[in-house]
Amino acid sequence: MYILLCVSHNQTVVLVARFIGGFANVGCIMCVTLYVKEIASAEMRHKLANMFSMSFALGSVYIIAVSAFVSYDTLHWILLSINLLYLLLVCFIPESPVYHIKNNDFQKARKSLEWLRKTTDETVLNSEIETLKKLFIKESGIKFLDIFRNKYYFKSMLIATFLQTFILNATAFSCIITFSSYIIQSLIVVRDVSLYNIAFTIFQLFGCLASFFVNNILGRRTFIVSTCITYAVFFFVIGLYSYIPIPYHDKVSLVLIYLFVFLFSAITFPVMYIYFNEIISSESSNHIFTIMMLGKNLGWFCTVKMFTYLLTLFPIDDIFLIFGVTTLMVAGISMFFPESKNKSLQTIKAELHC
């Protein structure tokens, strides 16, 4: 994708490049999530999942900061260099031990675990292999249509797709990220918001750093429901300005937007992916993550288009009231999902299979 963006400004070439990038984005998210899940020990799995959300925030900070100082062409050459460096470094990490176990190559699985766990203790390695067998190995793989024939697969797919699609879109996250400049300009009536945008992404980064310390304190469902209710309150406070004058409303609104971004990055986003890893089985994860990404991208597109349409009908304050209602809806529906913290996959399967 970046090679095409570096060598041509032709609109057709740019669209083709973005199309290729779309496949890469989905494939990378699926593979990285599954790889981390398969190589991580149980006590580290939820912490390593945070790196996924943190990478998004770091990318946002990097793009906004660097693009303020370099040209469009220079930015894409830098991004191409980062991708090539990533490709080179990936060559030095071992294949997932689960992959080798699935192929009945236990010698290579041990070699992989030796590197990952930094031990040659046969007792530890054999114990890890047995644990991985129980967690990830299924005698027969499943096909895409099996997702819709098995209650557990189907329910876990519905829950994951709902959360992925609606938490990113119904809570206004997609619109706030996409239209951050316009929203900040509208709320505080300032033309140049470049510094505010940098602060916006820094709050994202601080939120991701905070997630390492807070996201395991409460249950996954509790965190998702409580943060969605909090966001709804934020949106109602911002939206009610047209009807109830609030002193220093512009400053209050800006603080609430930053708090939203901080809490979303610290709790909601990483906890959501930890939850996915805990309720979705290994054999179904590729199919379900494909459906999830389709729902997320389609939902993002529709929400962004709807936002631009609503701006022609309502002031931005009223749109935040609408987002307050949709965010409460997400919180209400999420209350009925099973809790996954400190539960085995077998227990969750039993709950969802009924």
UniProtKB/TrEMBL annotation:
It comes from Diaphorina citri (Asian citrus psyllid). The chain crosses the membrane at residues 12-36, 48-69, 75-93, 158-183, 195-215, 222-244, 256-276, 319-337. InterPro entries: MFS_dom (IPR020846), MFS_sugar_transport-like (IPR005828), MFS_Sugar_Transporters (IPR050360), MFS_trans_sf (IPR036259). It is found in: Membrane. One of its GO terms (molecular function) is carbohydrate:proton symporter activity. It is a multi-pass membrane protein. SUPFAM superfamilies: MFS general substrate transporter. Residues 1-342 form the Major facilitator superfamily (MFS) profile domain. Keywords: Membrane, Transmembrane, Transmembrane helix. Its main location: membrane. Pfam families: Sugar_tr. GO terms for cellular component: membrane. This is Facilitated trehalose transporter Tret1-like. The lineage of its organism: Eukaryota, Metazoa, Ecdysozoa, Arthropoda, Hexapoda. Belongs to the major facilitator superfamily. Sugar transporter (TC 2.A.1.1) family.
